[in-house]
Amino acid sequence: MRANVIELQTFAVSEGALVPTANEARRRYAVVGLGARAQTFVDALAGPYADRAELVGFCDVNQTRIAVHNRWIAERYGYAAVPQYEAGDFGRMLEEQRVDVVVVTSMDRTHDDYIVAALEAGLDVVTEKPMTMDPVRCRRILDAAEKSSGSVRVAFNYRYNPVHEKVREVLASGAIGDIGSVHFEWLLDVRHGADYFRRWHRDKANAGGLMVHKATHHFDLVNWWIDSEPVKVYADGKLFFYGDENGKRRGLARDYDRADGSAEAKDDPFAIKLAASEKLRELYLEAEHEDGYHRDQNVFAPGITIEDDMAVLVRYSSGASLSYHLTAYSPWEGYRIGFNGSAGRLELLVRENTFATPAEEQEHSTAVQHGDAKPGETEALLTIHPLWEPPQTLLHHELGQGHGGGDARLLESLFGDGDEDPLGRSADHHDGARSLLVGLAANQSFETGQAVDVSALLAQ
Ligand SMILES: NC(=O)c1ccc[n+]([C@@H]2O[C@H](COP(=O)([O-])OP(=O)(O)OC[C@H]3O[C@@H](n4cnc5c(N)ncnc54)[C@H](O)[C@@H]3O)[C@@H](O)[C@H]2O)c1
């Protein structure tokens, strides 16, 4: 087995946008997994980046969802229907359509198959996070990437939020000296947080639980911000709020499996109403006949195998430590971070709303799409506290839409003109693995109660 630590130490510093050179024709893109998130990429490729990109294939287990995307881009951009393929015909699509780049936006547990197949065909890959969801799959991707002439970009949009870029800039400038520790709390509210317990994410076998599916963003940010390698992880996690037993014990549970068509769900603040949102109705309710997938499951029904309250302690190769907490049942959504340095402290507060309103009241708004903060209620406050000096406010303003403005900037980095990227925002498969391994180690620590060596995970 190779020395994984050495392999993971490679750090991407150049932007490497997936743009054609002056002599190249438009690059040919295929998208696999045409659900909600795919829209960000499909819209960009069919719209603002259509002069340098061509959509040549859509692939999914569900053909109804593909047809919805095709109709949307026809309506919005007058785009001709993109050829559609069944999941089993992915390889045929790559050949028939002479694909250059594959965009992976399918369910997490399927990412590795598509990434590896594309890399083996020598193609470039843009994959949504998490890059994958277990150590075996992660190893497969790292091996395939090593042998391939193709590249992997992991779409860590949080790096491209200007507030997060500022944090990276301040830390890299040495303004707070050497970093001794990071304290990081992320709160998902009872609307967005609850959504993980309604969908495929509720089963750990699909996405590795929130330590992998969600916290991969947060661990990636810390790895990037402090420019160091996670070495050891100890964690404690539990299902405290959602699930049938918790729901019954606290009198929150209603007796239904899925909300659509259920009288019990009508006034349940935890129920989502698919029929009331055009997007949710088209993408999921009207696509159920193909795969039987229910996107509106009861968060207090049986079958949940993921945690909703997780505490993690990470030791880094630099000697810094991270104490991290993820809560998925909070009244408000946002995060607080403190960096303790030898010359002072950097503090960030991001508030995406002041309180969550019941899902039912959100039914006609875009709030069902994650990444949308509530205008008028948001706040980003970054302060520096040098030793022996008064604190200074580095920024204080409202948040941008689309993951704090990160989505649009990520798309420009992927599909627009590549730039110098002095902050090293561009993330490759090593970054994807590094962030993933913290979550996987945390999952293992939940089970064993022991601290886990991160590098040992890939050796198993
Ligand atoms: N970076 C972000 O901010 C962000 C936000 C949302 C989602 N995501 C990521 O995007 C991905 C998709 O999430 P989503 O919210 O769109 O979920 P979704 O359920 O709306 O879409 C998933 C799609 O994958 C398809 N699929 C399932 N099995 C498949 C298979 N074997 N082959 C091909 N397609 C298959 C489903 O039919 C569905 O169309 C996930 O990996 C998620 O982590 C990232």
Automatic annotation (TrEMBL):
Residues 28-155 form the Gfo/Idh/MocA-like oxidoreductase N-terminal domain. It comes from the Bacteria. Residues 168-453 form the Gfo/Idh/MocA-like oxidoreductase C-terminal domain. Residues 396-428 are annotated as: Disordered. InterPro entries: Gfo/Idh/MocA-like_OxRdtase_C (IPR004104), Gfo/Idh/MocA-like_OxRdtase_N (IPR000683), Gfo/Idh/MocA_Oxidoreductases (IPR051450), NAD(P)-bd_dom_sf (IPR036291). Belongs to the Gfo/Idh/MocA family. This is Gfo/Idh/MocA family oxidoreductase. It comes from Kribbella alba.
